[in-house]
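seq as requested:
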Amino acid sequence: MQLGQHLPVLQVVIPLLSAPLCLLLRNGRLAWMFTLAVSWLVLAGAVWLLLQVLAHGTVSYALGAWPAPWGIEYHVDHVSAFVLLIVSGISAVVLPFAGISVAREIPADRVSLFYTLYLLCLTGLLGIVITGDAFNLFVFLEISALSSYALISQGRDRRALTASYHYLILGTIGATFILIGVGLLYMMTGTLNMQDIAVRLPAVTDTRTVRTAFAFLIVGISLKLALFPLHLWLPNAYTYAPSVVTAFLAATATKVGVYVLLRFVFTIFGAAFAFQVMSLGPILLVLALLAIFSASTVAIFQDNLKRMLAYSSVAQIGYMVLGISFASLTGLTAGILHLFNHALMKGALFLALGAVFYQLGTVQLTQLRGLGRRMPWTMAAIVIGGLSLVGVPLTVGFISKWYLILAALESGWWPVAVLVLLGSLLAMVYVGRLVETAYFHAPPEDDREVREAPLSLLLPIWILILANLYFGIDTSLTVGVARQAAALLLGVSP
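struct tokens:
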């Protein structure tokens, strides 16, 4: 019981202290096993916290026994518990894949350093989600960002260095905007505790300082979550990073960015100020639709499959932000639900491309001709993941888009519902290109023997694929938690 009381802080402390220990191991295999054990331990903690929140409500933890708002508070409600589960769950599934994938893509003398950086990135992402302090959130944001830059730079292609540097520049700009926003809020309220800011802010919302803080925070967070047109760092970062890094970041980092947007907009500023006073809804709606159509269109013309899925991720972020833009219970449920569903889809697809890269050494579309017969299990996973991306019934993608369409119709915006369906048609085009090449084209003439990926790579892929199907059929957990989280943010009954 005593250990359970400290579980919120252990979610951060365990991976943070494990990172330097991982570096001391020196041996790459031992470092991987150690990181795997840490990740599964964190997942167990996240599951326990979610069960506690569902059963008893919000869990709070005061660091150093200093009560909020004087001390830093870790705050776990339905929203943060759900995102904690996403981050820790993806990490726990990705790491078994990393065992041989990282050994192939990262030089042996840098493997232990790689896992140290991975644990620091995991620490940052978990800390962002669990903290109830605005400045503490910025600190964890930088921990995850700095380690992400280093992880991306580990890619075999030299362009990974350029991609990492580009991400560093834009990420630093975003972080600076967020820090300025938090500083302005502190100047006006005299506190950094998110709940306390929310209480004190209504008295000063008419000031230009608070509105300026709001603008800085929205722009800075939009850069971090890669909302169109502030997404320019994302395609190269995902394309040239090591396979494991791409899968992990694609399934977690932007989702945590969306979480930060939710937390500031709804918990701190409140829906009334954000959507009525500052008119955030129409802005997010337009940017979300532009993201869906522009990124999906660009994805159609990509020959590098990692880049294709990277642009697809920009489009999928558009769907999440679209749900938020409605500022309704159904819309917010759709946005939060898509956080979980997209993590399953994109995690599975990028891992499957990692398996293709492991066997072929490339993910160029032209090199995948006839691969459906040579790597049947890997390609079957890509097909199912692609169908989920399109939104075919019995997959999680269908559930997300169904709730988005419901939210649009509830708001009386039937043209937006039509646009959501048209966005799915664009996804069908680029997924169809991949399926056609893999199944209906003959293998290259100089084709060497290509075998199916090893079981240690296939197993994590298919765990996520089966989750895509299971949560596309049984939605009681995901929709239920997402709806409770949305109700909590809006301050209404579920």
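The CA atoms of residues 62 and 73 lie 5 Å apart.
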